[in-house]
Amino acid sequence: MTILAVAQMNSQNDVEKNFVDIEHCLKQAKKANATLCVFPENFICFAAGQQIKMAERFDEFKQRLEQLCFQYQIWMVAGTLACPYRPNGDKVTDGRVRTVSLCISPEGKTVARYDKIHLFDVMVSDGIGQYQESASFEAGDELAIAKTPFGNIGLMVCYDLRFPELAVKLRQKGANLLTAPSAFTFNTGQQHWQILLQARAIDSQCHILGAAQQGWHSERKRQTWGHAMITHSSGKILAECQEEGLQLITADFDLAEQEKIRQAMPLIQHRRLLQF
User: Fold this and answer.
1) Angle value at C-alpha 227, between 199 and 168, nearest 5 degrees
2) Cα(164)–Cα(170) distance, rounded to whole angstroms?
3) Is the N end or the C end of the chain the one with fewer CB atoms within 10 Å?
4) Catalytic pick from 37, 45, 158, 206?
5) Which of 37, 41, 206, 241 is an active site residue?
6) Each residue's pLDDT expressed in tens, for the chain with a length of 276 residues
7) 116 flagged as catalytic
8) Catalytic site residue from 25, 69, 103, 116
9) Is residue 41 annotated as part of the catalytic site, yes or no?
10) Catalytic site residue 109?
């Protein structure tokens, strides 16, 4: 049996304050005997227009997070960070950066990197209205799975939750857990956050770990929904943040139990690609 931890944060543009909150969550996760802690999107800095500035510090932040994982002897899915270069080392040259989620081991080593594939270019009925991630970020195009002693972790980010084929493809490639560091807007989160997490769990028969930002950010310019959640491979909600601000939730994960669910309803074997 493995204990999984998922963080809810209210990150701002104060990097050092956010690192204090990150370390607090790691301490709480260790106290709960958790093996893995998942952080939300933009967890090191949540401020519009800071992408290039934060991307210049990507290697510094990565090293600090690796040191924390080694210090606390815990696995981490490091929400998202802005990164100036692609996985092959090529620099993004058009004034944009990549949104990157990392999986880091207790040895302090990054074992997987995922560059967010689906970018949030939508209209939302809130104070911002139009979101256009593609203006600041370059989309990734590769799947990422981290192999761990307690199961394989398929990495996703936020808007990826709306695309079931990604979750299914990660399951087909061996994922047992799917992580979804997120910063859902208040309106879209209220409507869809819970149902998307449950739907992706049902589609993939994986536990879904939905770390979330919650509250107002960047001088009350943007409000996120929160409700960080862990969803069972059957779709049942195992844990959810019901309060505002910094929180940590935990749930058990049993690889043998998950296998029984998959054997009882072998979705991957039954799946057909229909063409009309």
Assistant:
1) 25
2) 10
3) C
4) 158
5) 41
6) 999 999 999 999 999 999 999 999 999 999 999 999 999 999 999 988 899 999 999 999 999 999 999 999 999 999 999 999 999 999 998 999 999 999 999 999 999 999 999 999 887 767 666 778 998 999 999 999 999 999 999 999 999 999 999 999 999 999 999 999 999 999 999 999 999 999 999 999 999 999 999 999 987 778 999 999 999 999 999 999 999 999 999 999 999 999 999 999 999 999 987 766
7) yes
8) 116
9) yes
10) no
